[in-house]
Design brief:
The complex is a heterodimer of chains A (about 625) and B (about 200). With about 625 residues, chain A is an alpha+beta fold. Among the domains of chain A are: about 235-320, Guanine Nucleotide Dissociation Inhibitor, domain 1, CATH 1.10.405.10; about 570-614, no CATH class. In chain A, about 20% of the residues lie in helices and about 20% in strands. Chain A is built from 14 helices and 22 strands. Chain A has helices at about 20-35, 40-45, 150-155, 175-180, 200-205, 235-240, 245-260, 275-280, 290-300, 310-320, 340-350, 475-485, 490-495, 545-555, and strands spanning about 1-5, 20, 50-55, 65-70, 185, 195, 215, 220-225, 225-230, 330-335, 355, 360-365, 375-380, 385, 390, 405-415, 430-435, 445-450, 460-470, 505-515, 530-535, 600-605. The radius of gyration of chain A is 26 Å and the shape is globular. The model of chain A is unreliable at about 85-170 and about 575-614 (pLDDT under 50). Chain B has one domain (about 10-175): P-loop containing nucleotide triphosphate hydrolases (Rossmann fold, 3-Layer(aba) Sandwich). Chain B contains five helices and six strands. In chain B, strands 2-3-1-4-5-6 form a six-stranded mixed β-sheet, sandwiched between helices. Chain B starts with 7 loop residues before the first strand and ends in a 23-residue tail after the last helix. Classes of the chains: A alpha+beta (about 625), B alpha/beta (about 200). At the A-B interface, α5, β7, α11 and β11 of A face β2, α2, α3 and α4 of B. Chain B: One of its GO terms (molecular function) is G protein activity.
Chain lengths: ~625, ~200
């Protein structure tokens, strides 16, 4: 089998992607503009034979709504500042890539035309690259301070005290965020890996783990009585805790130990099987603070409607994940969650998968007689044949999805100047599950990342808030943001400030993302049986949903094959000398699109970048 | 793998247009052979060679593009935590030289600031077909603050030199870094690799 992966976007991962700061700003702009892509069906209709019909795809991503961004610092000073070494992620093609420009195969290499490095030119040839406004090329090396990667000509005299960063570590200006934008890797989805979750197992089994590195979440937090506190959850934590009394320690340990082996003690909970977990906790002689910790921070379940058994199982899952890699059950990938889909893509590519970004697919071609999909037409009108097709939900057209009812995820992303719980170490990765403020509202999951996760600049924190939507993201999440953070601009803050000093929000964005998980296949209108739909991200904290989905799709296509088998160790690989030369090597220089020969057993994967599939 | 017998381990990443001979360079260096009539690279993730430099064992992990350069779709994670980059073009192919700025932009964005970059013009055995003069390439590499070398993977010209010189530079850089040891700024690669960690339990 061979895999061809085509995506109209110029980045991997769809809604699973992460962006630099400037990349995220471009993404926001694009989502706010909501330009309708003109439906250019005229030309390629001619390419459809009589015994074929067409299912159009939609390359204008409609999965993101209500995008609102806010800057709480002085933005003026940042006007002329540009990101050092930035390469805007959405310049030419983007998801509106179907607009004219992308039609011409020549264009693929066109931006290079004027970048011919002239022997005499002493100016930096990279900065001459056309078509990219946010591009600034720092002088490579030369400047000793990494923060001063900006070319003097572009930045001019902004007041940002770059050299004095050491003296004034905590004051981050918007200009600095922009300039250091490359240091940010801002995920559109916010998740953690359960250390015994399906994704970790899959990463290890498939060896895809070699492409990524991880950090432990260092703290589990709780919000109780207006205060953020750390939750002791491992045995060591409990014993060392200063916030718990001896009695509380004993009660907590007893309860946690019970949850680990609850199957052996059905008598202890079966009377409560029809009651909520919160009610069950109330009968266990646990103090209110312990009940809060267990319910909201360890089991992380709903007070109102989580059953006793579900709560016990959630607690057990948490405890089982503890201690595998550290003192909390969670891992976070360095450079962000957006690395994960790319790592799977890399493994696939190593074994022959072909990857084309900035390449959109117009439609599926269905054989009328068999009802099966036989090919796709791309934006050049090329026909690409395959046996199996995987398409992400977001590429399906409105008519295909007319009977589908989507849930939504509310997201907020903040850049802040301090941690929500200050301790000796600034480098903390924390998770806080905020109980609902009003009944009927969902709990909000908050993940705070420090700069050593390689997702934000020094002395800043990246805070992700996530919950299933009931309203717009801002309506759902702003009350929580206001509880935990200060939204004042610098000048105001000096005057006020009696209560405990909250972290200041420097920049924020809210948006709603479509949750297409859990959609029954039959809700999609007339999809051929060899077209498989994978969903976008779900709202859960872990990644089990995506892994299960990928495996299910794979098993349906190839019931006898192993899913993501371990590859041979590169150190032991013996290379076959008689490899058939499949193409004219040596002279294949230009990145031109050539029609992919349709391999006998080819699988075409379209836009399924978010899935850790092969 | 983590506890093996070496003093230094470096990740070196190859980039450049399809067909310039990236895989051939690695195989010449690591295996001492030149694969004739090779097509696009399949199955090569990275190759390893341990060399001894001034009595120290240096393990070089050399990563190949897995064919993703063909449609300019290299994953960002490929560049993460690379200690050095080898930017390769084909001296008989003007186009592969013209694309260098594009590759430099990718490096700017995704690789660490501290990465060492070497510009390599490959295929000097095909001198009669040369399209990119040595002088142009040298000037370009100077402007970009890169090391520059011409090689022939086929004739094995300069291939050893390329990797051994690079290893020397990486060693001296690593020494400086441990001396300076700037704790404040996190370095790539400080995270954990999950497969090598041992497990312990809640109790």
């Amino acid at each position: 089998q061979r895999v061809l992966h085509v995506d109209s976007k110029n980045y991997y991962g769809g809604n699973w992607a992460s962006f630099s700061f400037s990349g995220l700003l471009s993404w926001i702009k694009e989502k706010q503009q909501k330009t309708e892509v003109s439906d250019e069906c005229e030309d390629w209709r001619k390419l459809i034979l009589e015994n074929e019909e067409v299912i159009s795809l939609d390359n204008s991503d409609k999965t993101i709504e209500h995008v609102e961004d806010f800057c709480f610092g002085n933005q003026d000073s940042a006007e002329d500042v540009e990101e050092a070494g930035a390469l805007s992620k959405l310049p030419l093609f983007g998801s509106s890539g179907a607009q004219g420009a992308a039609q011409d195969p020549e264009k693929e290499s066109a931006p290079v035309e004027n970048t011919l490095p002239e022997p005499a030119a002493s100016s930096d040839p990279a900065s001459a690259t056309g078509g990219n406004e946010t591009e600034v090329t720092p002088e490579r090396e030369g400047s000793p301070d990494p923060a001063s990667g900006e070319p003097a000509s572009d930045v001019g005299e902004t007041e940002a005290p770059t050299e004095n960063a050491a003296q004034e570590p905590k004051k981050i200006t918007y200009a600095q965020i922009v300039r250091e934008g490359r240091r940010f890797n801002i995920d559109l989805v916010s998740k953690l890996l359960y250390s015994r979750g399906l994704l970790i197992d899959l990463l290890i089994k498939s060896n895809v783990s070699r492409y990524a590195e991880f950090k432990n979440a260092t703290r589990i937090l709780a919000f109780r009585e207006g205060k953020v506190e750390q939750v002791p959850c491992s045995r060591a934590d409990v014993f060392n805790s200063k916030q718990l009394t001896m009695v509380e320690k004993r009660l907590l340990m007893k309860f946690l130990t019970f949850c680990l082996e609850y199957e052996q003690h059905p008598d202890e909970y079966q009377d409560y099987e029809n009651r909520t977990f919160a009610e069950f906790l109330g009968t266990r002689k646990l103090t209110p603070s312990l009940q809060h910790f267990i319910l909201h921070s360890i089991a992380m379940v709903s007070e109102a409607d989580c059953s006793t058994l579900d709560g016990i199982q959630a607690t057990k899952k948490f405890l089982q994940c503890l201690g595998r890699y550290g003192n909390t059950p969670f891992l976070f990938p360095l450079y962000g969650q957006g690395e994960i889909p790319q790592c799977f893509c890399r493994m696939c590519a190593v074994f022959g998968g072909i990857y084309c970004l900035r390449h959109s697919v117009q439609c599926l071609v269905v054989d009328k007689e068999s009802g099966r999909c036989k090919a796709v037409l791309d934006h050049f009108g090329q026909r690409i044949s395959a046996k199996y097709f995987v398409v992400e939900d977001s590429f399906l057209s409105e008519s295909t999805c007319k009977n589908v009812c989507y849930r939504q995820i509310s997201r907020a992303i903040l850049i802040t100047d301090q941690s929500i719980l200050k301790t000796d170490s600034e480098q903390q990765v924390s998770i806080l599950r905020m109980p609902p403020m009003d009944s009927g509202q969902p709990a909000v999951c908050i993940i705070e990342l420090c700069s050593s996760t390689m997702t934000c600049m020094k002395d800043s924190y990246l805070v992700h808030l996530t919950c299933p939507s009931s309203k717009t993201a801002r309506e759902d999440l702003e009350p929580v943001v206001q509880k935990l953070f200060s939204l004042n601009t610098e000048s105001e803050e000096e005057t006020e400030n009696e209560e405990v000093e909250k972290p200041r929000v420097l920049w924020a964005v809210y948006f709603n993302m479509r949750d297409s998980s859990g959609i029954d296949r039959s809700s999609y209108d007339r999809l051929p049986s060899n077209v498989y739909v994978c969903s976008g991200p779900d709202s859960a904290l872990g990644n089990d949903c995506a892994v299960r989905q990928a495996e299910t799709i794979f098993q349906e296509m190839f019931p006898t094959e192993e899913f993501c088998p371990p590859p041979p160790n590169p150190e032991d690989t013996v290379y076959d000398e008689e490899e058939p030369a499949s193409e004219d090597s040596g002279l294949n220089n230009a990145p031109e699109m050539k029609p992919e020969p349709s391999p006998e057993e080819g699988g075409s994967e379209e836009g399924a970048t978010g899935e850790p599939e092969k | 793998m983590s506890m093996e017998d070496y003093d230094f381990l470096f990740k070196i990443v190859l980039i450049g247009n399809a067909g310039v001979g990236k895989t051939c360079l690695v195989r010449r260096f690591t295996q001492g052979l030149f694969p004739p009539g090779q097509g696009a690279t399949i199955g090569v993730d990275f190759m390893i060679k341990t060399v001894e430099i001034n009595g120290e064992k240096v393990k070089l992990q050399i990563w190949d593009t897995a064919g993703q350069e063909r449609f300019r779709s290299i994953t960002q994670s490929y560049y993460r935590s690379a200690n050095a980059l080898i930017l390769t073009y084909d001296i008989t192919c003007e186009e592969s030289f013209r694309c260098l700025p594009e590759w430099l932009r990718e490096i700017e964005q995704y690789a660490s600031n501290k990465v060492i970059t070497v510009l390599v013009g490959n295929k000097i055995d095909l001198a009669d077909k040369r399209e990119v003069s040595q002088q142009r390439a040298a000037e370009f590499s100077q402007a970009q603050d890169m090391y520059y070398l011409e090689t022939s993977a086929k004739e094995s010209d300069n291939v050893e030199k390329l990797f051994l010189d690079l290893a020397c530079r990486l060693i001296s850089e690593a020494r400086q870094n441990t001396l300076v040891n700037n704790v404040a700024s996190p370095l790539p690669g400080e995270g954990k690799s999950i497969s090598y960690l041992t497990c312990c339990n809640f109790n």
